[in-house]
């Protein structure tokens, strides 16, 4: 069921503003809306035309980043509560919480329709089946916190506090190359 932003705004608690530093903003493709994250633990949905704001929900700790899939059907928020939450920005509901990291989750990528990848200060990268919430693979090799991810053509790129850039074959989880320390 698709809701209008006005219906979402009327059906959930409003969010006038974040009460801490805003850590992320991601445009919802095809909409005049932005999903936001902040250190107040909130994940918000802002309408760029009306200026209205709806609260999607809260994490139990700081929210470090937010992203939206290319279709605009899902948003992901990464938190210092060690979890990633997948949201439906159209209905304002949480679809699932991805559990498995042992430290702050810093970044999440949507890859295709059914796969997601998260990186954490636990030095691990997790590949997720988004239909079940199961961990498909754990990529290990960074010596310190993993803080950034990028994906292109079957390869996952990661970097972090160990001052390296690593490239992984996403299908096999095999480390292909490491550059640095920079």
Q: Radius of gyration from the CA trace?
A: 16 Å
State the end-to-end CA separation: 49 Å
Count the beta strands. Answer: 16
Main pleated sheet:
4 strands, antiparallel
pLDDT < 50 stretches: none
Mean pLDDT: 91
Principal-axes geometry comes out as globular
Description:
The protein is mainly β. The protein has one helix at 5-11; strands at residues 22-28, 33-38, 42-47, 53-58, 63-68, 75-79, 83-88, 93-99, 105-111, 115-120, 124-129, 134-140, 146-152, 155-160, 164-169, 175-180. Strand 2 (33-38) and strand 3 form a beta hairpin. The longest helix is centred in the N-terminal third of the chain and has 7 residues, at 5-11. The N and C termini lie far apart (49 Å).
Give the key terms.
single chain; mainly beta; 182 residues; 4-stranded antiparallel beta sheet; globular
Secondary-structure blueprint of this entry?
Elements: H1 5-11, E1 22-28, E2 33-38, E3 42-47, E4 53-58, E5 63-68, E6 75-79, E7 83-88, E8 93-99, E9 105-111, E10 115-120, E11 124-129, E12 134-140, E13 146-152, E14 155-160, E15 164-169, E16 175-180
Antiparallel strand pairs: 1-2, 2-3, 3-4, 5-6, 6-7, 7-8, 9-10, 10-11, 11-12, 13-14, 14-15, 15-16
């Amino acid at each position: 069921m698709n809701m209008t932003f006005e219906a979402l705004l009327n059906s959930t608690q409003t969010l006038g503003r974040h009460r801490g530093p805003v850590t992320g903003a991601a445009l919802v493709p095809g909409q005049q809306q932005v999903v936001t994250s902040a250190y107040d633990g909130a994940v918000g949905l802002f309408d760029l035309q009306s200026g209205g704001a709806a609260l999607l929900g809260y994490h139990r700790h700081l929210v470090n980043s937010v992203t939206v899939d290319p279709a605009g059907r899902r948003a992901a928020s990464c938190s210092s509560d060690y979890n990633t939450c997948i949201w439906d920005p159209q209905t304002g509901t949480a679809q699932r919480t991805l559990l498995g990291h042992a430290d702050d989750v810093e970044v999440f990528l949507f890859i295709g329709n059914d796969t997601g990848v998260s990186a954490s200060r636990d030095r691990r990268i997790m590949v997720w089946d988004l239909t079940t919430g199961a961990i498909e693979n754990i990529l290990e090799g960074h010596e310190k916190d993993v803080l950034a991810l990028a994906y292109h053509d079957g390869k996952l790129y990661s970097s972090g506090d160990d001052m390296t850039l690593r490239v992984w074959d996403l299908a096999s989880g095999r480390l292909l190359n490491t550059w640095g320390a920079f």
